[in-house]
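Quick check before the chapter quiz. The format below is the same one you will see on the exam, so make sure you can read both the input and the output lines.
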Amino acid sequence: MTGAFLDRSGRVRQWRRATLFALLLGFAVALRARDFGNPIIHVDEQYYLLVGDHMLHGALPYIDIWDRKPVGLFLIFAAIRLLPGDGILAYQLTATLFAAATAWLVASGGRRLGATPFGALMAGLAYILWLSFLSGRGGQSPVFYNLFIAGAGALTLRLPALAKAGRRRAIVTNGAVACLLAGLAIQTKYTPAVEGAFFGLAHLWYLRRTGETWVATAGAALIWAALGIAPTALVAAYYRSLGPAAFQSFWFANFASVSLRQGYPAAKIAARLAGTTTQLSPFIVCMIVAWRTRPRSAEAALTFGWLAAALVAFAMIGAFFDHYALPLMVPLTMIAATVLGRSCVVLICTVAAGAALLVFHLATERDDRASAFAVARAMAANDGSQCPYVFAGDAILYHLAHSCLPTAYAFPSTLAYEPERGATGIDEAAEVRRILAGHPPVVVTLDHPLAPWNQDSEEPVSRALSRDYRLILSAPQEGGHLLVYLRRGRTMRP
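Here is the expected output.
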């Protein structure tokens, strides 16, 4: 009789978990469906898809196509590219699945912190909704690696119970899985190393609290550290096997180039921080309420420590783009879960803030996919089987036009904009002049740059366009226009 009851209880729990995930996935699909098929949701993710696609054709990141993100991120997009279609809808659906799975872990973590089922559900829904407000409505890298970090964090929240039961071996296994998950996140972007370090230290603390010897604890620490760095070490070893030049390219792109980027004006940094803080304000309120009113449980202390680590990671690079705050959403919404199910005032204010932000973003976020497709068609029709050049605009245009790349530095801002000057390891203006010397049949640029021009790069482009090219298409985009120029002497094909 007892066994039958336990079996039934287990089935009920599984049904509830499946129902929760189905609700979160349905909400994610409904919220994000408006962007399905849009190739220009954000400049970053379209480039990840471009790199992933070229990897399937033999291109090596940092050598044949340059960026400073880890290989693991590009491998995700390369795997997605194996799915049917051109990869655009596929990566957006995959990102939606990742977002829903992360929200499920948020809800589960909230329950471990003492949240009501309703509070946990609301926290999961809030995670999905606020992703869209912080430039995560498509496939930004945190949309993917937040799942790994949420998994590692959920395992870390098990530590107080495991330590209380004296389950040393379970803590070692728990730490191994958590650190491996953090290692996978690190190979998606390097900043999660801070959260990963926190999870490792938390496991060390609780392992010692069980009375484990220093020698055994040190051995566990070595295993956990090795698993955390293993994914990155494997990538480094692969590039090392290709020779010194390949390894140097890998090392520079991944670890040296970011420190060479020019800083942004203080006013722009302040504006970004103000905008991000405003959008996160409901969860800041929840955090304060939770801190002042909830019991100081060990699980709560771990979650606040996790949030502190995520804040350090957020501040590390210093650019403070809104999507850099996406990793904060996991611990913030877990903490918020404990408040949203118990305070009607906070719940109503959070729902109102979410509705207001949703209306604002729907009203202000342009859908310029028609322009991107029109420009890509013009590129494909007029490239004459040669490589067009997107000096400024969207990297995905190469993909949509099925064209070759005129340079390994195909992310337009790398060569076009001032903040990247001197951060690529090459003379950016010289690379632009080399591309123009090849007489690209089509050149795409913007009439209003998204950042200050690198004048040394922009001047030769302006001279070449006025002398050797004619404008054949102007398509609206983000308050300005994508401009398509055809080389003089070529007959324009519609």
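If your answer matched, good. The first strand starts at residue 389 and ends at 390.
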